[in-house]
Amino acid sequence: MLVLLVVFVGIQFVPTTRNQSDTIPETDFMIVNKVPNNIKSKLQASCYDCHSNNTQYPWYNKIQPIAWFLEDHIIKGKAELNFNEWDALSIRRKASMLRSIIKQIEKGEMPLDSYTLIHRNAKFSEEDKTTIIQWMVHLKNNL
Amino acid sequence: MKKVKVTTGILAMSFLSLTAMSCKDAKNENNNVDGQHTEMNANENHSEMNHNNDDGHYNVEKKEMAVGNNQDVNAEVVLKDYFNLKDALVADNNAKAKELGAALVKSLSTLNVSKFTDAQKAELKDIIEDAMEHAEHISKSPIEHQREHFKTLSKDITDMVAITGTANTLYQQFCPMYDKGSAWLSMNKEVLNPYYGSKMLKCGTVKKEIK
Prior knowledge:
The structure holds two protein chains of two kinds.
Chain A: H1 2-11, H2 29-32, H3 37-46, H4 66-80, H5 91-106, H6 113-116, H7 126-141
Helix pairs in contact in A: 5-7
Chain B: H1 2-31, H2 35-65, H3 75-90, H4 94-109, H5 118-138, H6 143-164, E1 170-175, E2 182-186, E3 205-210
Antiparallel strand pairs in B: 1-2, 1-3
Helix pairs in contact in B: 2-4, 3-4, 3-6, 4-5, 5-6
């Protein structure tokens, strides 16, 4: 028990990189696509923590090993899709991405359950899903 | 004393969260049909993947500096990998499809585009970039995901062939049932469905002959 306690206290001193930025680049999904406010706020709350350059960190992010867990999620999330860099993608990639976004929202694969467990407001209702998917389909058809 | 209490509290909390996480992992593993086997393959492919990725970037950089490289491949090699991948999906073989996804990442990354016009090069670059993403996902996903990515990959490869051409006769086939209708390419006229495999092997029709 004592060993565990020492390890636990010890790992608190290991630094993690925080995903934070003050500026929103011009390539951002919301700017480029003039996303309507109702959808914008949903995407911001449900996607942007892991899929942009700016995370709204929860207080417990200061505690290891939770911080590592979050850091890992954010790195993977951004590698997959970074909404801030949307316009740097080719039209073909955008279409592919939108297809994946639509699929994953439809199937409830995104946002992740482990995320919505804590961020209750990030969960999409059936109504949210329909609105967002319709809008994404429209965007995809007009690329 | 109070401090100890707080620390123990935090400790208990982190344990709880860790337990929650491992529960989730366990659930994921159970979802895999062949549990550990898949897991092992995923790891193997992962290291292979990294290796391929390095190769890819290396070659892309090289190409930008000096056009022409003995190790570059033509579209036939990409097509060969694509057809092998298609056959693995027809056979419901997740592990084999992973391997072939990785092979496809490699052949796509070394595709020689030097003999094409600038417009074609630009188009091919976009196609290759997108196709590589899908192939990469295929190299580390369960079979349902592999099939989803295979759909867009098939579109990319079809667009690629429209530019590069091929020495063989290909058949564009189409299954109206999978995801509101999905196409793929085959070397044979006979329809063997990569989206459903043994579940609906013969579902689909030949839409077009490509020469």
